């Protein structure tokens, strides 16, 4: 089969990204990327961190599950989490919006209200965008950020023996997805976590200052996203379940739905927690919890020393 044969579903999301990125020259002025949570590009008077994520109605959100304000907040939050995962602080966002002609105008103004609310939580605003007609609602946000005098924390700097730590929630959005998917609207804690994440933006730059060797935000699932650090860094990573305290709320929701809350914590996406590796004996900054260790490359991503037998997280076109 030539590289262009088959469909995107047959290729898979990450092989498809490789197919469009590998073997090309690094663009002029690009200092880092593609391949990480965000690119770093040169500006005449410094560096800019830049990232884009797209949200599609029916794939990333449903307007019978979430208000337009929730969706607007989520669209900005998922991008600001990528800025934080580089150790950067956000400077602004730009918004591409595609919608069908019969979209109520309140949907669009509600999206904008949500985007502004989330941007303002991070001390920034929306400085531009674009609007076009489409068959379904599609939201593309580009976020820019600043590193100050810090170096970016990439996916590739983890070393065997580094401590693995997390800051933010794991499994909440996945529990909320399970609840909404079965037609329920409560408990509101997990449902709201699915409607809109609350990434710990400030934890990214703090981790960078504390010497984090690699970092990523958990968009697809903890194990899947650790796979990107493992691959980029050439290390294995072992997650210790004894260190993952499962919140009582997730245990309750799991019991009610007949689902395993540990599965949500290990493979659930969309909470946009930050996970990072730190050199051994680092004093972790506030809010960071140790959950595992980086190991030798050939051990891969393991849970309590054993390979995980299921999918580690979400991939598109599965
Ligand atoms: N169409 C594309 N062209 C060039 N680079 C791309 C393309 N799509 C993705 N990438 C790059 O591939 C890398 C991985 O992208 P991916 O979207 O998985 O990361 P992410 O945004 O951190 O995760 P998520 O989208 O799950 O939140 C990023 O550096 C991204 O810029
Ligand atoms: C209606 C609806 N169905 C399913 C999901 C679950 N979901 C969609 S995208 C994604 C991973 C992150 O996306 P990306 O990789 O594009 O950042 C997950 C877990 C949802 N949020 N809404
Ligand atoms: Mg990311
Ligand atoms: Mg992305
Ligand atoms: Mg993804």
UniProtKB/TrEMBL annotation:
Belongs to the thiamine-monophosphate kinase family. It comes from Amycolatopsis balhimycina DSM 5908. Mg(2+) 3 binds at residues 37, 82, 217. This is Thiamine-monophosphate kinase. CDD domains: ThiL (cd02194). Mg(2+) 2 binds at residues 53, 82. Mg(2+) 1 binds at residues 52-53, 130. GO terms for biological process: thiamine biosynthetic process; thiamine diphosphate biosynthetic process. SUPFAM superfamilies: PurM C-terminal domain-like, PurM N-terminal domain-like. HAMAP family: TMP_kinase (MF_02128). Keywords: ATP-binding, Kinase, Magnesium, Metal-binding, Nucleotide-binding, Thiamine biosynthesis, Transferase.
């Amino acid at each position: 089969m030539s590289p262009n044969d088959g469909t995107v579903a047959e290729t898979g999301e990450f092989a498809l990204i490789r197919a469009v990125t590998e073997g090309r020259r690094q663009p002029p002025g690009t200092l880092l990327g593609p391949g990480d949570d965000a690119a770093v590009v040169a500006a005449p008077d410094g560096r800019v961190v830049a990232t884009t994520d797209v949200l599609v109605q029916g794939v990333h959100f449903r307007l019978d599950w979430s208000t337009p304000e929730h969706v607007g907040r989520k669209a900005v939050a998922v991008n600001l989490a990528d800025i934080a995962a580089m150790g950067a602080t956000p400077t602004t966002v730009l918004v591409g919006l595609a919608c069908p002609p019969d979209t109520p105008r309140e949907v669009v103004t509600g999206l904008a209200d949500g985007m502004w609310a989330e941007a303002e939580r991070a001390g920034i605003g929306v400085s531009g965008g674009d609007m076009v007609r489409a068959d379904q609602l599609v939201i593309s946000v580009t976020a820019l950020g600043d590193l100050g005098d810090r170096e970016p924390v990439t996916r590739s700097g983890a070393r065997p023996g580094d401590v693995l730590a997390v800051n933010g929630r794991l499994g909440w959005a996945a529990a909320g997805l399970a609840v909404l998917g079965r037609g329920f609207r409560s408990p509101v804690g997990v449902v709201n976590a699915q409607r809109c994440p609350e990434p710990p933006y400030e934890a990214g730059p703090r981790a960078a200052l504390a010497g984090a060797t690699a970092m990523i935000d958990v968009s697809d699932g903890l194990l899947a996203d650790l796979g990107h650090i493992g691959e980029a860094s050439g290390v294995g990573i072992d997650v210790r379940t004894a260190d993952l305290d499962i919140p009582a709320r997730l245990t309750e929701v799991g019991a009610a739905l007949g689902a395993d809350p540990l599965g949500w914590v290990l493979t659930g996406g969309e909470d946009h927690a930050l996970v990072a590796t730190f050199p051994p004996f680092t004093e972790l900054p506030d809010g960071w919890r140790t959950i595992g260790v980086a190991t030798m490359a050939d051990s891969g991503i393991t849970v309590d020393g054993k390979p995980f037998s299921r999918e580690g997280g979400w991939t598109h076109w599965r």
